[in-house]
Amino acid sequence: MATHTQVNLPLPVLPDNWSGEKDFKPIGKLSAATQRSIEPVGPHFLAHARRARHKRTFSEDDRIQAQENVKKVEDDDSGEISEPEDPMMLSRDAKDWKSQDHYAVLGLSKYRYKATEEQIKRAHRKKVLRHHPDKKAAAGSTEDDSFFKCIQKATEILLDPVKRRQFDSVDEHADVEPPTKKQLKDGKYYKLWSNVFKSEGRFSRIQPVPKFGDENSNKEDVDTFYNFFYNFDSWRSFEYQDEDVPDDNENRDQKRHMERKNNNARKKKKTEDSARLRKLVDDAMAGDERIKRFRQEANASKNKKRLEKEAAEKKALDDAKAAKEAEAKASKEAEEKAKSEREQGKKAKEAAKAAVKKNRRVLKGSVKDANYFVSGDAPASVIDAVLNDVELVQGKIDADETAALAGKLNGLKIADEIKGVWSAEVKRLVSAGKVKDGDVKSLA
Amino acid sequence: MAAEAAPASGTTPGERHAIGIAFGNSNSSIAYTTVEDKADVIANEDGDRQIPSILSYVDGEEYNGQQAKQQLIRNSKNTVAYFRDFLGQDFKSLDPTHCHASAHPQEHNGTIAFTIQDKEEGEPSVVTISEVTTRHLKRLVQSASDFTGKQVNSAVLTVPTNFSEKQKAALTKAANDAGLEVLQLISEPIASLLAYDARAEAKVADKIVVVADLGGTRSDVAVIASRGGMYTILATAHDYEFAGAQLDKVLQDHFAKEFIKWNTTDPRENARSLAKLKLEAEATKKALSIGTNANFSVESLAEGIDFASTINRLRYETIARKIFDGFNRLIEGVVKKAGLDVLEIDEVILSGGTSHTPKIASNMSAIFPSTTTILAPSTTPTAINPSELQARGAALQASLIQEYEKEDIEQSTHPAVTTVKHLTNAIGVMTITGDIDKGLFTPIIAAETAVPARRTIHIATPKEGGDVLIKIVEGGSHIKVSKPEPKPKTNGDKKGDDDSDDSDVSDSDDEPEDVREKVWKVGTVLAEAAIKGVKKGGKIEVMINVAGDLAVTVTCREVGGKGGVRGNVSAP
Ligand SMILES: Nc1ncnc2c1ncn2[C@@H]1O[C@H](COP(=O)(O)OP(=O)(O)O)[C@@H](O)[C@H]1O
Ligand SMILES: [Mg+2]
């Protein structure tokens, strides 16, 4: 090979920490090899033979030794399919092929739907070798080829995938009956049902079919199994059991009638088969300890969840209650505080009110002391006017101002002094814009 | 091979004049190599390159080939056909099915024989299977000698892969008796593969080849690992249920039924009518390999009534579908038996007469991925005539070994030479892809390669060059099945007028097929090596040498550079 294979994907960069003696590091070893025979043919083999021989010659012993471990590629035709032939079967008539057990005819009773195409072909050949009419004639027996025809029919059916399925659909010999209660008492529940479903699984369009499992199967696998069989997609059909339809043109009506009858029968059987399988699954499930265990486990875990949930709910309730209580307490406290504050405020207010009253008495007393700013007996109208003005001023000033004013007036006996204080106050009010100039003439 | 005793004449290499013989159960062919070492198939005196393996005697005169085949109609009792597979067999273990309409095999002194009137006068003779074979081979040798102008005295013959030592010994003896030195018996599928590999344009490559030899009474399939021009058979299957005769039968029944429609008799119930029906059915079948329509016409088919009809290829393919499906299953089955997947098959060689059938080739194209080369006349214009492959291969082998002393040939084909270790896994190197962390296995030596073996490859380095790591590992392949990416919905091209058709199409599109691909799984790390200071754009040459004891030597160097690294991994 002069030109070498070219690879365009690059080699990786050497890692920094890589080291090897003389840049090479042996690590593992080749896996074990298979001994095989190369074909002694072609120019490249000749070159190989030259290299291998190097002028050495090989003996018969070498030959035997060399061939001992060689992997076989040719199947051994002998053995394997050897089953005693039932004399009843040998005398069968090929015309009754519908009732014939095709697997038994070919000596494949053990295999049935499991027989591979290659096995069927080999079995057929073996039977032909034995039962071909020429062989019988040679052995001196009469030329009766009826069993040979049975063999041909069996092969025709089993090598045709469509016909084989039709036959396999009704091959009762491959059925495994569901275990009886008595059988189950021996504690072989898993083994017995396993066999049943292994056999039922042959009808599944979807392959491989999940296994029934045993007591140690986990929940997921068991669920998968039951789901699969509750949704079983079966190729089983029942045309093999059709009644013969007349094959002539004369009886068209009868023919149509038969066909319809067959069709209905097929449908009915198919429905019955689905129901049968469903019941089988129901029965298996009903006795399935695993399902019970899973349910208990599920219940236990559900209970645990419920308790947890209840505890959580209680806690939440308690927490809410505590929070509510705390809140109530806090608001009560706040209320009380506010109340006491309020009460204190009331006293102060009352005190202030009393003070204002007292001061107001001072204010009114002052104008009385000043004889209302007239000499002699003061006429009622003057008294009125002066007291009116005092009240007006009082209305314009707050408690502090009242107190201040009262302070200034307190102890004054002389009318002019008193008048001076009042007119100063009025002036202040006028300049503050609270009283209009001329509104309180009597005190100005 | 004690059985291959030299013939009485004791030919020496210089005196040899050798040919290749494919002696089939239905047909034989003979080939020689030209001065340019090209193999050519020889036509006999009737101009046939496919010579029916049939002998017939009329008034003491011997007929062979096509002329003998015609005798199946009038002279079936004195006609011997389909006898090759009886050679070296016990009467107990032979299948007489195909001899139903010719001389019947019978037990005779512990061997198999036929009772035929082969002389002009007197009692019929009992002719043993060995003698029948010798007579047939003599006729072949005569034709070859007439053609080449020199007496042929030695040959390479092809045999099925399941021929026992006893069968081989019987064939060798019969050939010796016909004046032939048997240089070697080689397997039929290997002969076919050799015929293809010997073509000038063929390159030596590591490939897995399926040879499907679909003949007249049997179909044989072999899966072969072809490694550096050496061949190892990984699996075989033999089938006697699906072959050319069953295709004839389909047509036979088809035309018989048509005949019955117009006439009252069933031509299959009369031996002579049946023989005519059979021969014409085969002719019609062959015509359907070339044309899309074929005639079927028999003079005086039954009760003196002539019958003529036609059939088109489509109809034929429909009525013969079961047989074609049988071929498909047979071939798929043997690939599986070899532990392989169709994705791992590089070539399918269709060999044997039945392989002319276009439908079989197109079925192969459907079963195997587009990367598999299907070598059949209808799929590959340059394909070799499938009926000639075995004879050509035998002739090529004959020309390769005829210079050697008999002793040398025997020693070279000795099991001590042919039995060798074959690698279980591929050996390769890790390269990088876009994803730096994920190395990619790149095979250097394929699995099932016989050791000792040596392979070399050139690998790129990172753009900047520098120091690189060469990691040598074992790799196993497996098939990854994944769901295809859901196709984006196409609403664009829906037209109002063909709504119903449209919905049908999208229905079938709903379940896209799984995507299957061959992926490598990295196994044992065998060794690591470093090449430092690689030039920008440099390439690395990696050579792996596996010794007969499975010790591995790795040699790496920069292409065009000096020095390099070399190291050993010791034998397991
Ligand atoms: N052109 C063709 N088209 C279809 N079938 C063919 C063609 N040529 C030959 N055959 C069929 O091939 C079969 C013979 O194949 P061959 O390889 O010679 O058989 P065998 O290996 O049994 O000797 C016969 O059934 C014959 O009808
Ligand atoms: Mg052949």
TrEMBL record, chain A:
SUPFAM superfamilies: Chaperone J-domain (SSF46565). Its main location: cytoplasm. Residues 254-269 have a biased composition (Basic residues). InterPro entries: DnaJ_domain, DnaJ_domain_CS, J_dom_sf, RAC_head, RAC_head_sf, ZUO1-like_ZHD, Zuotin/DnaJC2, Zuotin_N. Keywords: Chaperone, Cytoplasm. Residues 101-171 form the J domain. Residues 1-20, 50-94, 241-358 are annotated as: Disordered. GO terms for cellular component: cytosol. This is DnaJ-domain-containing protein. It comes from Hyaloscypha variabilis (strain UAMH 11265 / GT02V1 / F) (Meliniomyces variabilis).
TrEMBL record, chain B:
One of its GO terms (cellular component) is cytosol. Residues 482-497 have a biased composition (Basic and acidic residues). Residues 479-516 are annotated as: Disordered. Transmembrane segments: none annotated. InterPro entries: ATPase_NBD, Hsp_70_fam. It holds the Pfam family HSP70. Keywords: ATP-binding, Nucleotide-binding. Residues 498-514 have a biased composition (Acidic residues). One of its GO terms (molecular function) is ATP binding. PANTHER family: HEAT SHOCK PROTEIN PDR13 (PTHR45639:SF32), HSC70CB, ISOFORM G-RELATED (PTHR45639). This is Putative ribosome-associated complex subunit SSZ1. It comes from Hyaloscypha variabilis (strain UAMH 11265 / GT02V1 / F) (Meliniomyces variabilis).
